[in-house]
Amino acid sequence: MEFWNNILGSPVKIVAPMVDASELPWRLLSRKYGAELCYTPMLHSGIFVKDPKYRKEALASCEEDKPLIVQFCGNDPDIMLEAGLLAQDYCVAIDINLGCPQAIAKRGHYGAFLQDEWPLLHNIVSTMSKNLKVPVTCKIRRFETKDKTVAYAKMLESAGCKMLTVHGRLREQKGPLTGLADWSYVRAVRDAVHIPVVSNGNIQCIQDVERCLAETGAVGVMTAEGNLYNPALFMGQNPPAWIPAIEYLDLAVKYPCPLSYIRGHLFKLFHHVLCIPSNNNLRIRLGAANTMDQFRLIVNEIKDTYESYHEGLKLWEQTTEEGSENIVLPPWLCQPYVRDTPENHIKKVEINRKEAEERENLNSKRHYEDADGRTISRKQMKKLRRISRRPEKPDNLPDRTLEKCSKCANPLGSKCSYKLCKKCCKDRCYVQNLDCKGHRILVKTRRELAIKYASKETNKEV
């Protein structure tokens, strides 16, 4: 526990490493609202080693941004060590990401998709632990069983891991199938190892923090999504979203970051406001905004719309509008985003699939009727529609009587010089050296051109 107490300062309230979201301005905002330890976003070790620009942007920090842990992903012990050596002077510890469940981690073969390769992970952790001057920590996800999860944690501890963050979800629990994290796995690991254990998952409000610490025995709690929707979560507050939004924009001016990060944070801070149908135009404008002035304008518009309700000058008679989420707090306050359960999601997907199949079946078996209600074919229906578009054209035109070729049963060409169909005309022209302008058959003309061209070539050779 020396690392936890003396180097980290015994932090309990921790903001998770989040790709495109835990950049310096957001870390500083989170620390202002009670966060005691922050991580950099997950950094790709290979790119970090090769790209100086990427390295400079990733290590952007300041004196107020401490203590800070830098997190890396990767699968090569030597490259991971090289990245750690380049970053160790800028942080108090290096964390290895063994918990990312996203598709990009699967393609790159890192994160949670290394959790079955224990010899490799032991090599990575031990190599970094023995050669870095700062401690090495790990962030993991649980397995199906507690026994395997505990064995996994002990293996990492034996390799040199000095702190373990345990996410109580499986690798497969992500997106709409996220569901709840199982804290009992965190408790099992906490009871089995001798290093600090941090619990990750299910932290949406200050009451979750207190309950998690009591149930897991962890030294601290880590939150990601809860922090993004309410950066004041660790203070037990639900401020009007425009307050942290304006503070964050000021920090983003002082410590510039990509506009896509800013846009993403504002979408989450104002999630419940933007879910109201009458604010759909604001949502569209925020999605298209690409300057700080445009971001500020949108934030101030939301503030002007809802501030009088927040101060009690106007009465807010409802907590939601039809079509928006069923929330308890007024929509302008920072508050958790509650996902639907995986079971409900699966049911909705199944219902949508059946409805799509029904629509497809109806479209493939469409029945057509004329004005008198008689069933007709699709071809007849198209004819009736064509007639309706040209009512001035007579309905009953006499059928054309086609004169037949004198040599076969095919209809003759209307402009044929020899009163033949095209096939018979072509045969006649070929045999008798003729042209037919009606069928555009030029056998005679082309033969004459060929003879003329051949004679010119002969004269040249002579």
Relative strand content:
5-15%
**Spatial strand arrangement across the major sheet:** 1-2-4-5-6-7-8-9
Tally the beta strands.
13
Range of helix content: 40-55%
- Helix- and strand-based class? alpha/beta
Query: What name does CATH use for the topology of the largest domain?
Result: TIM Barrel
Please identify, by name, the CATH architecture of the largest domain.
Answer: Alpha-Beta Barrel
Overall structural domain count: 3
- Rg: 37 Å
Please identify which CATH superfamily of the largest domain we are dealing with: Aldolase class I
Describe this entry's structure for a reader.
The protein contains 20 helices and 13 strands. With about 450 residues, it is of the alpha/beta class. It folds into three domains: about 240 residues, Alpha-Beta Barrel (TIM Barrel); about 110 residues; about 60 residues, no CATH class. The strands form three sheets. It has an eight-stranded parallel β-barrel, surrounded by six helices. β1, α2 and β2 form a beta-alpha-beta unit. The longest helix is centred in the C-terminal third of the chain and has 23 residues.
Task: Please describe the structure with a list of short key phrases separated by commas or semicolons.
about 450 residues, alpha/beta, TIM Barrel, 3 domains, eight-stranded parallel beta barrel, two-stranded antiparallel ribbon, 20 helices
